[in-house]
Description:
Layout: H1 4-36, H2 41-52, H3 58-74, H4 78-91, E1 107-109, E2 118-122, E3 139-143, E4 152-154, H5 158-190, H6 194-207, H7 215-252, H8 262-275, H9 282-333, H10 351-367
Antiparallel strand pairs: 1-4, 2-3
One zinc ion binds next to loops.
Amino acid sequence: MMKRNTKVWVWILLSTCQIMWVFAGSQEELFTTLQKTPWEAKSMQALQTLMRNEREPVALRSRAMAICSLALLRQGNTNQFVKASQFLESTFPEEKGLITVSIAENFENCSACSGKGRREVPCPACKGKACLRCKGAQVIQTVCTLCMGTKQQFKLSPAVQENALRLLKEGVDICQKNLRFEKESVVALAEKDNAKKIALLEAVLSSFPERTDLAPVQKSLEEAKKIREVELARKKERERREKEEREVERLRGLREVPAAEREAAINAIETYLLKNPKCSAQNELEELKAELTAKVALRNRLISSALWLVGLCGGFAFIVFLKVMIFSKKIERSGPLPGMARIDKNKFTDPLAEEREKNQTRSKQEGN
Ligand SMILES: [Zn+2]
Ligand SMILES: [Zn+2]
């Protein structure tokens, strides 16, 4: 969100840009007019005003001054032209090569004295009748009144106008570039979408690196970048929270895992808590871990009790088995019944044998 004082500041900036826009437009018009009608008096006056206005861009002021200097040369006022040229160089030392035409280009041999500087005139004393003064020559040598003995006379070179036209074209180009800068600055500064605003402001800075009034654009760019940083940090934090939510939800699901997977679940929770010590669901996960640990401990106790029980039962069964085994061996080893050893087998008659003998005897008798 833009601060209130920043809004006011941007509004002032935009208004200034719009005023500059109007000025830049009128300056372009001035240079264009002079291109069409060079040296036109009213426009030349406007150019002088522009030249003196210290709030105007140096590139325009220096060109205006150069054109005004060339106007002096055009009028043949070479001394003033030299002074003006020197003043131009000292006022705008960074603007070089504005005046390319030289004074020498605008002089030719004097037509009156044919470049001699002196010429013969009828003797003023004798008026051509010969006298002592002219030593009878009737003429005397005198300094050329046209070139004043300099042997040369001023003749305007077309290079002066060419120089002026080049400067006017540069002036138009500068005005158009200034207009483009003003328009692009206004659009960039007024852009609502922060990402677009950064792109536009950066484009302005890269398109007009030579400008010395880029501070507002730079300041606005810095502010837009700060906003972007805050937005990025918020987005990152939101993504982190969403990821944490997903992870925690996954870990919550481990509450219902089969008993065999509880150890792995506890490890997963421990690993997550180690990696994310500032996790918002830390207490909940600690509780879940404790719950799972308790379940694992209970299961282990149950298993060991069951094992004990099985072992115990096995032991009993073994003992019973052993007892059975021992008992069956005693039966095998048991001898004759007690007292049987003392019985005389010869005296012992087999009741069945007696019966058999009786039967045999009876059958014999019946046969007979
Ligand atoms: Zn004379
Ligand atoms: Zn002359």
